[in-house]
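REQUEST FORM: STRUCTURE PREDICTION
Request ID: SP-0412
Submitted by: Lab K.M.
Chain count: 1
Length (residues): 418
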Amino acid sequence: MEDVIELAYALDTFYFLLSGALVMWMAAGFTMLEAGMVRSKNTTEILTKNVGLYSIAVIMYMLIGWNLMYESDGGLFGLLPSFSFLLPASEPFTAEMARAGEVDASYFSDFFFQVVFVATAMSIVSGAVAERMKLWAFLIFAVVLTGLIYPIQGLWSWGGGFLDELGYSDYAGSGIVHMAGASAALAGVLLLGARKGKYGPGGQVRAIPGANLPLAALGTFILWLGWFGFNGGSELSVSSADAANAVATVFMNTNLAAAGGVIASLLLARALFGKADLTMALNGAIAGLVSITAGPDTPSPLLAATIGGIGGVLVVFSIVALDKLRIDDPVGAISAHGTAGIWGVLAVLLSNDEATVTGQLAGLGAIFGFVFISSLIVWGVLKITIGIRASEEDERNGLDVSECGMEAYPDFTGARAK
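STATUS: Completed
RESULT:
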């Protein structure tokens, strides 16, 4: 019997690690998507931001974030974490504990799986503030979001806090990860302002095409693949028949929702604009994935595709609406992760009998309110101290040279100059 339990421990540990690696690969997806959706003169800066934010997230979650979120025993009144620092110096779970069935998987494998979620939330911010934010202001904000803001609101639900007590249900993080990232992004965009030339004096919306749509499409497919680890790994186990069946359901529904999002956004774009808009289709895929993330384990296949399809419709309308409000989001991140994230949290009610309207609304309100307000404060402090917006000249010339001292496509830009 001990051998069976030990084998289950090893299998679930391996599943955590494999799922975490898939989610880590989503960092490449966000990087490629954003690099494809911005102008060539800002590509190197986007790449630097993404590799930097991922590394900051890993270190900050090791230093303090993990302890705030999961070692606070639900927090004071389910709200305030206890402060402690650093992971254990060595794996705290022993082979004897595994054989006795006292623990389900390696402590460090759980940390690895959770830390890549933190980086995902911060990646959402990167695309929304692209092409006009100072690099170092962004990276400083990444320190605060990944070390403090994300873990505190994560404590409220996944860490056994008050939202968990209220019955808030969010399987893999439509609200906890995606809406949280979009809320932080919205706060930054409001203080940052739009890119120069994006909006005309009469309210016209001027398209600013991305430099590399093949790269953006590749990034979306990478995200789609990584999402199987994001949602599938959130089952937290694969070592029993029931767990394996649940994982298969999650994979299937995740895939169906993404496909539904693409088809719905393509059809709506055709109806609204008369063309098959690739950028809307790419955001439709992401919106479908975000929409199913809060509850991929309970819908039927048809309902999963429908949930994703509704997400695909919402993201198109949301992108258009934000442009009308002159809220400039170069990659559509606020819509794909925020608007679709809200829908995903509410969509849980369609198939999960244990979820309640009160619990889901409380989760949405608490997460958005805390992340938006705290992010607004941090962005505001950065704005009045070191500044968050690049100069008009740097924005015109591109952030690659001013922030990184190199161009992503020097041969191409040199040839064009000649």
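NOTES: Residues 2-37 form the longest helix (36 residues).
Reviewed by: T.R.
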